[in-house]
Specification:
- By secondary structure, the protein is mainly α.
- It is built from six helices and two strands, in the order αββααααα.
- The chain has helices at 2-32, 56-74, 80-107, 113-121, 127-132, 143-151; strands spanning 45-49, 52-55.
- Strands 1-2 form a two-stranded antiparallel sheet.
- The chain is elongated, with a radius of gyration of 27 Å.
- The N and C termini lie far apart (81 Å).
- The model is unreliable at 163-170 (pLDDT under 50).
Length: 170
């Protein structure tokens, strides 16, 4: 009986200590970590490449372009495994865009307009362009579809535009 009486008398302190500990855990963890959501200072940085921060919106735009290219090529929505692969691909494209572009510019490497034309509708069409504009029944590449697509590029909704570094939205 004496033990139960002692617990009743001290229970206020025990509950107070538990509440204080929980508050310290919630608030303290939010203040100490770099992602402080308590005082509305959201950090939307998903990574850093060559000293440049990669924002969540930029990464999501790249991921969305990869998803749309997949849908255009495969004619179906990506499943979870494919979505993981597309995330990796989007991150690698972001690395390429930030880290390698700087080096290419320093070396003076660029794709000329003639080379770009050749990759899109010339004699040496890029494999992804060839795949996207081939007839599904025959497998034959249709250059006229590419020309028609390019003429109507500014009229297409952003989700229908093929990306991935070869054709970019207008």
């Amino acid at each position: 009986m004496a033990l139960i009486n002692t617990i009743r008398e001290k229970s206020g302190w025990a509950v107070g200590a538990i509440v204080f500990g929980l508050l310290l855990f919630i608030i303290g963890g939010d203040l100490i970590s770099g992602q402080n959501r308590l005082f509305n200072r959201n950090d939307t940085t998903v990574g850093e490449i060559s000293g440049e921060k990669v924002e969540l919106n930029d990464f999501n735009n790249t991921l969305e372009q990869a998803k749309q290219a997949f849908i255009a090529q495969q004619g179906r929505q990506p499943d979870e495994n494919t979505l993981g692969y597309l995330r990796d691909q989007a991150w690698n494209q972001t690395i390429y865009r930030i880290a390698f572009k700087e080096q290419f510019e320093a070396l003076g490497l660029a794709v000329s307009d003639d080379e770009l034309y050749d990759m899109v509708q010339g004699r040496n069409v890029h494999p992804s362009i060839r795949q996207a504009f081939s007839d599904p029944q025959t497998g034959q590449f249709d250059r006229n579809k590419v020309v028609e697509y390019l003429k109507n590029l500014d009229k297409l909704p952003p989700r229908r535009r093929i990306s991935g570094g070869i054709l970019r939205p207008a």
